[in-house]
Design brief:
about 400 residues; 17 strands; Cysteine desulfurase; pyridoxal phosphate; PyrdxlP-dep_Trfase_small; EC 2.8.1.7; binds pyridoxal-5'-phosphate; seven-stranded mixed beta sheet
């Protein structure tokens, strides 16, 4: 299975776009990835041929929709090496997945308990636990990073105790690209009896994930950052927790039997999936994962690492540029500052040349404050990026620099 990036690119119609006469150079993959034609086709095919509500049909279309929908769940379960397919819950994305877990956790937290997160947290993971702590009287502790954006393991250790009920951390930081040692962190948290949630929104597209080998309790991610559609994501959680924790929303599908005064809950996964689900996007999510699984993972990892290495080398040679986030283990992201230019200006001036990056605090305002900066310009790489994209970024930055002077 050779990896040919130019062949891959042909499968992504959007990459052929031009922006004011410039070829699109898409380097905002940490915000969302583009979709291959097979994912786009899957959405059209669903609405063209077999749109139907699932699980309740007495007809052919309902059967076909249900089969494809539940088949997609199998695809996600096997991709994560989940013990059981029932452990995969459809959500609208990482944010909703974390909120479902936090809703359940609220039931088990009280004053005196602690929740441990890290300084790297995305707002979805930080604000959610922060608010759970406000509500329950539990205390939120935050494990420190060093100036390179690498987690301070000694500080993490010192903040773990029998009082820790939950530990949450990103697999990969969306702002800095830091790759956390998730197995080591999980083992430490488990040693004090804490539950572990891993925010896999970035990690899932770059690193192989085996939830049983990691040993965590929850792993959450969004389809749209791994070549699937927006509006769908997954919560993987250990069955014994998901089947006991309080239900999230109430309504159709999630019930077993109902009277006017009472109700009992359905089995997993349905007890956490109230109402008509996002069928088309779940199916297309499965198609995206099937597509991704057929590629040579080792070749992808090498390719993405070579892009980041090349970008880092050029950044280090670039006068007036400072790289933000220099952890030893890093994937997918080059965050930087340019002397004399606000990140927003850099983004604007690159966009005029067809180069798409992200600027700002990357949903990590406290992290930017910790680093003493207002935000960064961030280029983020995907398997369909090329060395030409990296070169275009730095050619573009040279022009930006001239324009700023
Ligand atoms: C994107 C992202 C989220 C939020 O994902 P949504 O798809 O917006 O719900 C959370 N954490 C990290 C690390 C992210 O990159």
């Amino acid at each position: 299975m050779a990896f040919d990036v130019y062949e891959i690119r042909r499968q992504f119609p959007i990459l052929a776009r031009e922006i004011d006469g410039n070829p699109l150079v898409y380097l905002d993959n940490a915000a969302t990835t583009q979709k291959p034609q097979c994912v786009i086709d899957s959405l059209v095919d669903y609405y063209t041929r077999y749109n139907s509500n699932v699980h309740r049909g007495a007809h052919r279309l309902a059967d076909e929709a249900t089969q494809a929908f539940e088949g997609a769940r199998d695809t996600i379960a096997s991709f994560l090496n989940a013990n059981k397919r029932e452990e995969v819950i459809w959500t609208s994305g990482t944010t909703e997945s974390i909120n479902i877990v936090s809703h359940g956790l609220t039931h088990y937290l009280s004053a005196g308990d602690q929740v441990l997160v890290t300084e790297l947290e995305h707002h979805a993971d930080l604000v959610t636990w922060q608010q759970v702590c406000h509500k329950t009287g539990a205390e939120l502790l935050v494990a420190a990073i060093d100036d390179n954006g690498e987690l301070d393991i000694a500080d993490f250790d010192s903040k773990l105790s029998e009082r820790t009920k939950l530990v949450a951390f990103p697999h990969v930081s969306n702002a800095l690209g830091t790759l956390n040692p998730i197995v080591e962190l999980t083992q430490k948290a488990k040693a004090v009896g804490a539950w572990v949630l891993i925010d896999g929104a970035q990690g899932i597209a770059h690193e192989a994930v085996d939830v049983q080998a990691i040993g965590c309790d929850f792993y959450v991610f969004s389809a749209h950052k791994i070549y699937g559609p927006m509006g769908i994501g997954a919560l993987w959680g250990r069955e014994e927790l998901l089947k006991e924790w309080p239900v999230w929303q109430t309504g159709g599908e999630m019930i077993s039997s109902v009277t006017y005064q009472t109700a009992t809950w359905n089995q997993l996964p349905y007890r956490l999936e109230a109402g008509t689900p996002n069928v088309a996007d779940a199916i297309a999510f499965g198609v995206a994962i099937d597509w991704f699984k057929r590629l040579d993972r080792q070749a992808i990892e090498q390719h993405e690492a070579s892009l980041l290495d090349a970008a880092t080398a050029q950044a280090e040679d670039f006068q007036g540029l400072t790289i933000v986030g220099k952890s030893k283990n890093k994937v997918g992201v080059l965050s930087f500052l340019l002397e004399g230019g606000h990140p927003a200006d850099i983004g604007f001036l690159l966009d005029r040349q067809g180069i798409a990056i992200r600027t700002g605090n990357h949903c990590a305002e406290p992290l930017m404050n910790r680093l003493g900066i207002p935000g960064t310009a961030r280029a983020s790489f995907s398997l369909y990026n090329t060395i030409e994209d990296v070169n275009a970024l730095f050619e573009g930055l040279k022009k930006v620099k001239m324009m700023l002077e």
